[in-house]
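Worked Example 4.2. Consider the chain below.
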Amino acid sequence: MIRVAVVAAVPALRAGLRAMLEGEGIQVVQEVPSLTDLGRSSAEVLVVAGALPAMDARWGWREWTGEGPAVLFLVEDAEGAERLLSSIAMSFPIYGVLFLETPADALRAAVRALAEGLLVIDPRLMPGFGGRPEGIEEPGEPLTPRELEILRLLADGLANKEIAARLGIRERTVKFHISSIYRKLNAVNRAEAVRQGLRRGLIAL
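Applying the procedure from the previous section yields the following C-alpha coordinates:
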Protein backbone atom coordinates (compact mmCIF):
# COMPACT_ATOMS: atom_id res chain seq x y z
CA MET A 1 0.00 0.00 0.00
CA ILE A 2 1.46 3.36 -1.06
CA ARG A 3 0.92 6.05 1.59
CA VAL A 4 0.05 9.47 0.14
CA ALA A 5 -0.32 12.93 1.67
CA VAL A 6 -2.42 15.52 -0.18
CA VAL A 7 -1.29 19.16 0.08
CA ALA A 8 -3.69 21.82 -1.19
CA ALA A 9 -4.88 25.12 0.25
CA VAL A 10 -8.52 24.60 -0.79
CA PRO A 11 -10.42 21.98 1.30
CA ALA A 12 -12.64 20.97 -1.62
CA LEU A 13 -9.58 20.31 -3.76
CA ARG A 14 -8.06 18.13 -1.04
CA ALA A 15 -11.27 16.12 -0.79
CA GLY A 16 -11.48 15.74 -4.55
CA LEU A 17 -7.90 14.52 -4.81
CA ARG A 18 -8.48 12.00 -2.03
CA ALA A 19 -11.46 10.60 -3.92
CA MET A 20 -9.43 10.37 -7.13
CA LEU A 21 -6.34 8.80 -5.56
CA GLU A 22 -7.58 6.25 -3.05
CA GLY A 23 -7.86 2.64 -4.14
CA GLU A 24 -5.75 0.28 -6.23
CA GLY A 25 -2.99 0.05 -3.63
CA ILE A 26 -2.99 3.76 -2.69
CA GLN A 27 -4.07 5.16 0.69
CA VAL A 28 -4.35 8.87 1.54
CA VAL A 29 -2.99 9.13 5.09
CA GLN A 30 -2.94 12.91 5.47
CA GLU A 31 -4.54 16.06 4.07
CA VAL A 32 -2.99 19.46 4.86
CA PRO A 33 -3.18 23.01 3.44
CA SER A 34 0.62 23.47 3.07
CA LEU A 35 3.89 21.55 3.19
CA THR A 36 4.82 23.14 6.49
CA ASP A 37 1.75 21.51 8.08
CA LEU A 38 2.91 17.98 7.30
CA GLY A 39 5.03 17.37 10.38
CA ARG A 40 6.46 13.86 10.71
CA SER A 41 4.26 12.28 8.09
CA SER A 42 4.50 8.63 7.12
CA ALA A 43 3.61 9.42 3.50
CA GLU A 44 5.81 8.02 0.73
CA VAL A 45 4.41 10.36 -1.93
CA LEU A 46 3.17 13.93 -1.56
CA VAL A 47 0.57 15.24 -4.01
CA VAL A 48 0.89 19.03 -4.01
CA ALA A 49 -1.81 20.96 -5.88
CA GLY A 50 -1.79 24.63 -6.78
CA ALA A 51 0.77 27.37 -6.21
CA LEU A 52 3.24 26.98 -3.38
CA PRO A 53 3.64 29.79 -0.83
CA ALA A 54 7.19 31.11 -0.53
CA MET A 55 7.75 29.30 2.76
CA ASP A 56 6.72 26.00 1.20
CA ALA A 57 9.12 26.55 -1.67
CA ARG A 58 12.00 27.02 0.79
CA TRP A 59 10.91 24.07 2.87
CA GLY A 60 11.91 21.45 0.30
CA TRP A 61 12.68 17.84 1.11
CA ARG A 62 15.52 18.76 3.49
CA GLU A 63 13.04 19.32 6.30
CA TRP A 64 11.84 15.74 5.98
CA THR A 65 12.98 13.11 8.44
CA GLY A 66 14.91 10.29 6.80
CA GLU A 67 15.38 10.21 3.05
CA GLY A 68 12.32 12.24 2.10
CA PRO A 69 9.22 11.59 0.04
CA ALA A 70 8.57 11.70 -3.68
CA VAL A 71 6.51 14.74 -4.68
CA LEU A 72 3.87 15.03 -7.41
CA PHE A 73 3.14 18.66 -8.27
CA LEU A 74 -0.21 19.43 -9.93
CA VAL A 75 -0.15 22.76 -11.76
CA GLU A 76 -2.79 24.79 -13.58
CA ASP A 77 -0.76 25.80 -16.64
CA ALA A 78 2.55 25.44 -18.46
CA GLU A 79 3.92 28.62 -16.88
CA GLY A 80 3.52 27.15 -13.41
CA ALA A 81 5.11 23.91 -14.58
CA GLU A 82 8.09 25.78 -16.02
CA ARG A 83 8.72 27.52 -12.70
CA LEU A 84 8.67 24.20 -10.89
CA LEU A 85 10.91 22.44 -13.37
CA SER A 86 13.50 25.20 -13.23
CA SER A 87 13.56 25.70 -9.46
CA ILE A 88 11.38 24.13 -6.78
CA ALA A 89 10.97 20.63 -8.12
CA MET A 90 14.70 20.08 -8.54
CA SER A 91 15.09 20.47 -4.74
CA PHE A 92 13.24 17.19 -4.27
CA PRO A 93 14.96 13.83 -4.82
CA ILE A 94 12.06 12.31 -6.78
CA TYR A 95 9.35 14.45 -8.35
CA GLY A 96 6.65 14.66 -10.97
CA VAL A 97 4.78 17.51 -12.64
CA LEU A 98 1.29 17.05 -14.09
CA PHE A 99 -1.63 19.33 -14.83
CA LEU A 100 -4.56 19.62 -12.40
CA GLU A 101 -6.83 18.37 -15.20
CA THR A 102 -5.08 14.98 -15.20
CA PRO A 103 -7.68 12.18 -14.85
CA ALA A 104 -7.82 9.88 -11.83
CA ASP A 105 -6.30 6.82 -13.47
CA ALA A 106 -3.31 8.82 -14.70
CA LEU A 107 -2.83 10.37 -11.24
CA ARG A 108 -2.77 6.94 -9.62
CA ALA A 109 -0.33 5.68 -12.25
CA ALA A 110 1.92 8.67 -11.53
CA VAL A 111 1.86 8.00 -7.79
CA ARG A 112 2.84 4.37 -8.38
CA ALA A 113 5.68 5.42 -10.70
CA LEU A 114 7.00 7.95 -8.18
CA ALA A 115 6.88 5.33 -5.42
CA GLU A 116 9.15 3.21 -7.63
CA GLY A 117 11.66 6.03 -7.94
CA LEU A 118 10.69 7.20 -11.45
CA LEU A 119 10.31 10.80 -12.56
CA VAL A 120 6.91 11.77 -14.01
CA ILE A 121 6.49 14.70 -16.40
CA ASP A 122 3.41 15.45 -18.51
CA PRO A 123 4.41 14.76 -22.15
CA ARG A 124 3.20 18.23 -23.15
CA LEU A 125 6.03 19.66 -21.05
CA MET A 126 8.66 17.53 -22.77
CA PRO A 127 9.93 18.98 -26.07
CA GLY A 128 9.77 16.29 -28.73
CA PHE A 129 7.94 13.95 -26.32
CA GLY A 130 11.14 12.56 -24.92
CA GLY A 131 13.62 15.37 -24.42
CA ARG A 132 14.34 16.99 -21.13
CA PRO A 133 12.44 20.11 -20.01
CA GLU A 134 13.69 23.45 -21.29
CA GLY A 135 15.54 25.56 -18.76
CA ILE A 136 17.18 22.65 -16.93
CA GLU A 137 20.94 22.83 -17.37
CA GLU A 138 23.14 19.81 -17.93
CA PRO A 139 24.25 18.95 -14.36
CA GLY A 140 27.60 17.48 -15.36
CA GLU A 141 27.94 15.68 -12.03
CA PRO A 142 29.80 12.37 -12.07
CA LEU A 143 28.02 9.30 -10.76
CA THR A 144 29.19 8.01 -7.41
CA PRO A 145 30.63 4.48 -7.21
CA ARG A 146 27.33 3.26 -5.72
CA GLU A 147 25.34 4.93 -8.50
CA LEU A 148 27.56 3.33 -11.14
CA GLU A 149 27.00 -0.03 -9.47
CA ILE A 150 23.23 0.47 -9.53
CA LEU A 151 23.30 1.70 -13.14
CA ARG A 152 25.04 -1.53 -14.14
CA LEU A 153 22.38 -3.55 -12.34
CA LEU A 154 19.66 -1.52 -14.10
CA ALA A 155 21.30 -2.44 -17.38
CA ASP A 156 21.08 -6.09 -16.32
CA GLY A 157 17.32 -5.64 -15.93
CA LEU A 158 17.14 -6.02 -12.15
CA ALA A 159 14.13 -4.59 -10.29
CA ASN A 160 14.55 -2.30 -7.27
CA LYS A 161 13.93 -5.13 -4.82
CA GLU A 162 16.52 -7.32 -6.54
CA ILE A 163 19.08 -4.51 -6.53
CA ALA A 164 18.47 -3.93 -2.82
CA ALA A 165 18.99 -7.61 -2.07
CA ARG A 166 22.12 -7.77 -4.23
CA LEU A 167 23.71 -4.74 -2.55
CA GLY A 168 22.40 -5.34 0.97
CA ILE A 169 20.63 -1.97 1.19
CA ARG A 170 17.01 -0.86 1.60
CA GLU A 171 14.75 -0.74 -1.43
CA ARG A 172 13.90 2.90 -0.70
CA THR A 173 17.62 3.72 -0.73
CA VAL A 174 17.84 2.13 -4.17
CA LYS A 175 15.00 4.40 -5.38
CA PHE A 176 16.85 7.52 -4.27
CA HIS A 177 20.07 6.41 -5.93
CA ILE A 178 18.11 5.81 -9.14
CA SER A 179 16.56 9.28 -8.90
CA SER A 180 20.04 10.79 -8.55
CA ILE A 181 21.20 8.80 -11.59
CA TYR A 182 18.27 10.17 -13.60
CA ARG A 183 19.13 13.77 -12.69
CA LYS A 184 22.80 13.40 -13.48
CA LEU A 185 22.19 11.67 -16.80
CA ASN A 186 19.19 13.83 -17.79
CA ALA A 187 17.08 10.67 -18.05
CA VAL A 188 13.37 10.25 -17.35
CA ASN A 189 13.25 6.45 -17.13
CA ARG A 190 15.46 3.37 -16.77
CA ALA A 191 15.85 2.71 -20.47
CA GLU A 192 17.07 6.25 -21.11
CA ALA A 193 19.45 6.11 -18.12
CA VAL A 194 20.98 2.91 -19.49
CA ARG A 195 21.26 4.43 -22.98
CA GLN A 196 23.00 7.49 -21.56
CA GLY A 197 25.30 5.28 -19.49
CA LEU A 198 26.26 3.32 -22.59
CA ARG A 199 26.74 6.48 -24.68
CA ARG A 200 29.02 8.01 -22.05
CA GLY A 201 30.99 4.80 -21.55
CA LEU A 202 29.88 4.41 -17.94
CA ILE A 203 28.63 0.86 -18.49
CA ALA A 204 28.99 -1.85 -21.11
CA LEU A 205 26.62 -4.61 -22.12
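Helices lie at 11-21, 54-59, 78-88, 104-115, 145-155, 160-167, 171-185, 190-199. Strands lie at 2-7, 26-32, 45-49, 70-75, 95-99, 120-121. Compare this with Example 4.1 before moving on.
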